[in-house]
Give the backbone structure.
Amino acid sequence: MQLTKVIGHRGAAMLAPENTLASIKAAAEAGAKWVEIDVSLIADGGLIIFHDETLDRCTTGSGKLRLASPSLVASLDAGRWFSSEYEGEKVPTLVQALDYIQSLGLGLNLEIKHDADDVENIVPDVLEALKEHWQDNEKLIISSFNHAALALCYQMDSSRYLGQLYEDIPAEWQAQLAAIEAYSLHCDYERLTQAQATAIKQAGYKLLCYTVNEAQLVESHWRWGMDAVITDDPNLFVHLEK
Ligand code: G3P
Ligand code: MG
């Protein structure tokens, strides 16, 4: 695995409209070697890069994302809300994003978003897209807050590096990570305690923290053994890669 210390969140969400190709490019230009993006399911089985459950905040459209057709999503502007400089930016499909990220030589943390009952609709198609369109398994972590989604990933392809996402780390974290032979645990830096960090590292897992937008907020976390930050502004941390 070629994990680095700095992962751009939704590309580089502070520098360009999140989860767009422009945002991925901004992360690379800032010096990040990895990006995190969110993959979501829309109507007709389409897979796109998008965070929210509705189109409203980040596009010129509105309404529930899950009900939007690929042609509707393709017609939307996903940059204008951020600034006029990005007018015309599109919502990428998963395949477009995979191709672009690899063309820039970046690693990828792909976060699977889902409706509660959509795990079996999204996971097989994500794995198939990765099989067809992602070359280097050593530069890919699949993560999700949904343990069932990761369990299905593990069942279908145990060679993938899996990252369990948590807001609050539950008491049963170690059993959950063991059940999917997880590579990493990804958590909210604000809720992580030193005791949890120590236990996670002692158990042999990589520890990634989101979403860190001020360097001094995680000075102690590095000492606790944190391996990487997921940040909206990679500029804050890229000196650590040197
Ligand atoms: O993967 C880390 C982070 O992206 C998880 O939260 O809501 O920003 O997707 P969210
Ligand atoms: Mg995410």
